[in-house]
Amino acid sequence: xxxxxxxxxxxxxxxxxxxxxxxxxxxxxxxxxxxxxxxxxxxxxxxxxxxxxxx
Length: 55
Prior knowledge:
Layout: E1 4-9, E2 16-20, H1 25-35
Antiparallel strand pairs: 1-2
Domain Transcription regulator AsnC/Lrp ligand binding: 1-53
Protein name: Transcription regulator AsnC/Lrp ligand binding domain-containing protein
InterPro entries: Dimeric_a/b-barrel (IPR011008), Tscrpt_reg_AsnC/Lrp_C (IPR019887)
């Protein structure tokens, strides 16, 4: 899927955490989540977290 740079199956409140990268948060990343990831069969909810800095 375009923009997804990493995806992990996790334990806890969520099943999968996907890392999505792009130049523009609104036009690229949020649009990708709402139009592509959010429409996958079985996906009932998405959460978006923005990375402010990396170590």
